[in-house]
Amino acid sequence: MKATDSDATTRISLQALIRLQADARALKLPSARPARARQAGLQHSSQRGRGMAFAEVRLYQPGDDIRSIDWRVTARRQAPHTKLYEEERERPVLLLCDLGPTLFFASAGAFKQVRCAQLSAILAWLSLSAGDQVGGIVFNGDTLTVQRPARRKKSVLRLLDTVASQQRTSIDSPASKTTLDTALGEARRVAHTGSRIFVISDFLNISEKTTSLLGALARHNSVSALRVVDPLEQTLPQSGRFAIAGEGGPVWFDASNSSFQQAWRKKITHHEAALEECFRLSGVSATDVSTQEAPAVSLKAILGPGGRIG
Q1: Rounded CA gap, 166 and 152, in Å?
Q2: Other C-beta atoms lying within 10 Å of the C-beta of residue 240
Q3: pLDDT given at position 86
Q4: What angle, 0 to 180 degrees and rounded to 10, lies between the N-to-C axes of helices 112-129 and 153-165?
Q5: In this structure, are residues 181 and 208 in contact, taking their beta carbons and an 8 Å threshold?
Q6: Which residues of 51-64 are buried (b: 16+ CB within 10 A; e: fewer)?
Q7: Which of 78-92, 158-172, 268-282 has the highest mean pLDDT?
Q8: CA-to-CA distance for 5 and 16, rounded, in angstroms?
Q9: pTM for this entry
Q10: In this predicted model, what pLDDT tens digit does every residue of 42-88 receive, in sequence order?
Q11: Are the beta carbons of 286 and 224 closer than 8 angstroms?
Q12: I want to staple 55 with a disulfide (CB 3.0 to 4.6 A). Which of 59, 71, 86, 158 is the partner?
């Protein structure tokens, strides 16, 4: 059944992904909230014609150009502060969109594959509007499609069409041929040095190779992980019998069974520790995105003022 805009909980259409351009525009509106320290460098300079982007404000040092003094910050902090700028460049943005079997699931909100598709679409529109090249790697367990970065709207539309068409309709399939590791290996081949890369996945199927693959990618590029999580994966209900779809049919569990609860928590704790170590060793920043939350809301927390991708 074709997903509708009002009920895109299991699948989302190409038309709905295109309409997320409006969410991207909304993220680019000036923000009333103060920028966090980690967001320094993500705001455009108000000065035109310099080919420079605002980087940060710091204490004035001898030799700094007095024309760059930030008088508002100076007055507020009672000490001279100056603005620093960095050269603006067009850069490639690569989106790795995981639509594998584990993402055909949600207990609340929308399926994880829908959230991955929405996050990819909003980031693609933001990147295009910033003048960056946009490309992606879309993989769903059966198929992997590579689109090299380009600075054209037609390229974004083609990428979103791939995302829409490769969403799953079930989890029934043979052993996955295209995994997260496969996509990371392909990204290393495709990405140019200095690329901005977003890996959008639930990261449930990391392996012993994932850390080294992420690390190799992060050595010459800026890599962020957007992990889509569902509330049920973090905390089980305390009582009741529930069924989860599996490749061999529904799998029933009794949430009031203490042994089952203990085994579940042990598995979750082990995976969380392994994933945290993976991100730490590879030098990749990670952000959790809940299936319950609208993607634009999640992205607003990690983007800079004006929706700038750092």
Answers
A1: 22
A2: 10
A3: 58
A4: 180
A5: no
A6: ebbbbbbeebeeeb
A7: 268-282
A8: 6
A9: 0.77
A10: 333 333 333 455 667 888 887 778 888 999 999 989 999 988 765 55
A11: yes
A12: 86
pLDDT per position as a tens digit, 175-233: 678 899 999 999 999 999 999 999 999 999 999 999 999 999 999 999 999 999 999 88
Query: Domains along the chain?
Result: 5-28+90-307 (3.40.50.410), 52-87 (no CATH)
CB burial of 158-189 (b: ≥16 within 10 Å; e: otherwise) equals bbbebbbebbbeeeeeeebebbbbbbbebbbe
Indicate left, alpha or beta for 109 from its phi (over 0: left) and psi (-120 to 50: alpha). left
* Residue from 142, 132, 95, 146 nearest 116 by CA: 95
What does the alpha-carbon distance between residue 216 and residue 199 come to, in Å, rounded to a whole number? Answer: 14
Q: 141 in the Ramachandran plot: left (φ > 0), alpha (ψ -120 to 50) or beta?
A: left
Instruction: Decide if pLDDT at 246 tops 60.
Output: no
Task: Tell me how far apart the alpha carbons of residues 308 and 310 are, in angstroms, rounded to a whole number.
Answer: 6
Tokens 């009920």, residue located: 7
